[in-house]
């Protein structure tokens, strides 16, 4: 039994080594990617249902590794969190998004808002408001042009800290959206305790309307609650005309999804934006 113990320890050690090597190479890849512009922002417009116009655009991060090709954020965001690099990555995104918004506005765009995803860790550990304030100042962007998308997990570890950070952001004019609503811990008290402007209903609910039993009622209830609390409500992952119709009937303000537009490279997004304005 002593032998087995030693063997399994050796095995454990070997896998630890492989794992730390993998982490090390990932770490240097990541830093290399940050320094060599291998990260890129894609843009997905949100559509206002009442006016049928673009109400804002969400930045979605892409990593184009020369060897591995396009890597999905669903893969590298959790990794960046684990490696302690997520705040650096968030800062890159926030800066890039402000730079783009400043450029577009200078070029005459009347786009009202750019939405940026922020990791849960950033809010409580990383002085998010300082990062945002610096980026706004650096690029000369008004905070009212920016919305930050956070998930409920951002508030769990320290509600008090989160609240004070969110209020700092609000004083810069920045709007706050609660992303993936309905999937997390869904402590509804967050909605009244924190200065939240927008609810984004998670795509998993939208995917099941209008057919699946009970699901449409949940979506209807979320929209009714959001309206009662004076929150703006966005439905994510809208792929079908019948979903859009259903959401519009319930008073949902805004939709986002493949039905309206996929995430686009910067050039394609600008073409889309100008084409929408003409029609
Ligand atoms: P999310 O914020 O919930 O973003 C929505 C995801 O749904 C995006 O995936 C988008 O491409 C995808 N999507 C949009 N419309 C549709 C649709 O109609 N149907 C379906 N099936 N999917 C749709 P993506 O770009 O792979 O991003 C995945 C997640 O990675 C994001 O989920 C977000 O949590 C995270 N993420 C992306 N960019 C960033 C970033 O810059 N910073 C941070 N911290 N997280 C990011
Ligand atoms: Ca989002
Ligand atoms: Ca989401
Ligand atoms: Ca998500």
Overview of this structure, please?
By secondary structure, the protein is α/β, with parallel strands linked by helices. The protein contains twelve helices and nine strands. The protein has helices at 2-35, 73-82, 86-106, 120-125, 128-139, 153-156, 159-171, 190-193, 203-206, 215-228, 241-249, 266-278, and strands spanning 39-48, 54-65, 69-71, 114-117, 146-150, 175-181, 198-201, 232-235, 254-255. The chain has an eight-stranded mixed beta barrel, surrounded by four helices. A hairpin with a 3-residue loop joins strand 2 (54-65) and strand 3 (69-71). Helix 3 (86-106) packs parallel to helix 5 and helix 5 (128-139) runs parallel beside helix 7 (159-171). The model has no long low-confidence stretch (mean pLDDT 89). Bound molecules: ligand C2E and calcium ion (3 copies). Ligand C2E binds next to strand 2, helix 2, helix 3 and strand 6. One calcium ion binds at residues 179-180, 200, 202, 236.
